[in-house]
Specification:
Dehydroquinate synthase-like, alpha domain, six-stranded parallel beta sheet, 384 residues, globular, Rossmann fold, two-stranded antiparallel ribbon, alpha/beta, 8 strands, 2 domains, 11% strand
C-alpha cells in the first residue's frame, strides 16, 4: 500500500433526479459561445442525444456534433474527431457516450491548441495541459471514464490498447443521470457493469491502494455486488441503475487514486488485437486473474467479504474464495462470454497474447503478485 497518495477528482459532479437540467447553468456560468459535442452514431440513432440537447437548446449556444467514432477506436480514428474539434473552434466540450467517446473528448481538451496529436502523447502523455473545459455525461454504468485522467486507444501497429494518462484530462464537470442508461441493452449493460466491478476489486487489491482509493473502491464494490444483476436485466429498475452509475463513478475515482492491475493489463491485447469489447475482455479474465492473485491479497479479499457479502464464512481463506466465486457467478449469470474460442481466437496465438500482455508494465507493476510470462500463459490458457 502506498505511503504517499493524492486524490484528484472532477471539479463538480451532479447526480440524482433530473441531473441533466444542470447543463444550462454549466454552459451559462462558463459563458460558452460554441459547444463541441462528442458522441457516436449509435447514441444519435437511439435518440439518446436528444435528452441533453433539449437542455443545450434552451441556452442558445452554437453547437457542433462530432459523432464519427467507432467502438474501441484506434488513435488514428480518435485523432480524426480531435482534428474536427480543432477546426470548429469550440470553447467548451461536452461528451455524451461511453468510455471511447469520453476518452476522445478528453484528448481533444488537451490538444485543441496544439500542433501535435495523440500519437505524440502515446510516448509523452504529460507534455500537454488542458486547453478547453469538459463536461462528461456517461451513457453506460461501467467505464468510469468520466472520473479518470485516462484515455484508452488502440494502437494497431502494436496490436494493443494503450492508456494515455494525464491529470489534466480529468473532467471539469460530470452529470450522472440514470435516465441516460435506462434503455441500455442488457448485453452492453452487463459488459460495462463488469468493467466497473473489475475497476473496484483491482483498485482494492492494487499495490497502489491507499486510504483515498480504498474509500471509493470498497464502496463501489459493495454497490455493484448488490445491484448489477437487477440493473442489467430490469429496464425499470431505476434505483439499481442509479446505484450502478454512482458505483461506476466511484470506481473511476479509485482508478485515479490507485490503479488497475493484471486483469486490465492482460485484457488490452484482446481489445487491441481481436477487437473484443473492453468490458468483455475484463470479464473473461476477472476470475482467472483473481484466483492467481488470491495468495497475495487474501486478507484484502476477506475484508471485502466482511463489508460486501457478510455471509457465514469464518476463515480468511474461505472468505477470500467466496468473493472470487461471487465475481465468477456474476459474469456467468449475465451471460458474458468466458472463452476466447467464442471470438475465433486460435490457440496458436497464445505466444503473441503473452508477449503483448507482458508489455503492459504500467498495470502489471500494480499487481500484488508478480506476473511472469509463464503465469500470463497459464491465465490465458484458462480462457482459450
Amino acid at each position: 500500500m502506498l505511503t504517499k497518495y493524492n486524490l484528484k477528482i472532477p471539479h463538480c459532479i451532479y447526480s440524482g433526479e433530473d441531473a441533466l437540467d444542470n447543463i444550462c447553468c454549466i454552459l451559462q456560468e462558463n459563458q460558452v459561445k460554441k459547444l463541441a459535442i462528442f458522441t457516436d452514431k449509435g447514441i444519435r440513432k437511439t435518440g439518446l442525444l436528444d435528452l441533453p440537447m433539449a437542455r443545450v437548446e434552451k441556452v442558445g449556444v452554437s453547437v457542433v456534433v462530432l459523432d464519427d467514432l467507432p467502438a474501441e477506436p484506434s488513435y488514428v480514428q480518435a485523432q480524426k474527431l480531435v482534428d474536427q474539434c480543432k477546426d470548429c473552434g469550440s470553447d467548451f466540450i461536452m461528451a455524451v457516450g461511453g468510455g471511447s467517446v469520453m476518452d476522445t473528448a478528453k484528448l481533444a481538451s488537451v490538444l485543441m491548441t496544439r500542433k501535435y496529436g495523440i500519437q505524440e502523447l502515446l510516448d509523452a502523455p504529460l507534455m500537454v495541459e488542458k486547453c478547453v473545459k469538459t463536461l462528461m455525461i456517461p451513457t453506460t454504468a461501467g467505464t468510469g471514464a468520466e472520473a479518470t485522467p485516462n484515455a484508452i486507444v488502440a494502437v494497431p501497429e502494436k496490436q494493443l490498447k494503450v492508456g494515455i494518462v494525464n491529470p489534466q484530462m480529468i473532467a471539469d464537470y460530470v452529470i450522472l443521470d440514470a435516465v441516460m442508461i435506462k434503455h441500455l441493452p442488457a448485453k452492453i449493460a452487463a459488459a460495462t457493469g463488469v468493467d466497473a466491478l473489475a475497476h473496484a476489486i483491482e483498485c482494492w487489491t492494487s499495490n497502489k491502494a491507499n486510504p483515498f482509493s480504498d474509500i471509493f473502491a470498497i464502496q463501489a464494490l459493495d454497490m455493484i455486488l448488490r445491484n448489477i444483476e437487477q440493473a442489467c436485466t430490469d429496464p425499470e429498475a431505476m434505483a439499481a441503475k442509479n446505484q450502478m452509475q454512482l458505483a461506476s463513478f466511484y470506481a473511476g475515482v479509485a482508478i485515479t487514486a490507485s490503479g488497475t492491475t493484471a486483469v486490465h493489463a492482460l485484457s488490452y491485447p484482446l481489445g487491441g488485437r481481436y477487437h473484443i469489447a473492453h468490458g468483455v475482455s475484463n470479464a473473461m479474465l476477472l476470475a482467472p486473474v483473481m484466483r492467481f492473485n488470491e495468495p497475495a491479497c487474501r486478507e484484502r479479499l476477506a475484508e471485502a467479504y466482511d463489508r460486501c457479502i457478510q455471509g457465514g464464512e469464518i476463515t480468511v481463506q474461505r472468505k477470500s474464495a467466496a468473493v472470487i466465486a461471487r465475481l465468477e457467478q456474476i459474469v456467468k449469470g449475465l451471460n458474458i462470454p468466458t472463452h476466447l474460442e467464442q471470438f475465433g481466437v486460435p490457440k496458436e496465438e497464445l505466444d503473441l497474447l503473452v508477449a503483448s500482455g507482458m508489455n503492459v508494465t504500467r498495470l502489471l507493476d500494480n499487481n500484488m503478485r508478480k506476473v511472469t510470462a509463464d503465469d500470463a500463459r497459464r491465465i490465458y490458457e484458462e480462457i482459450l
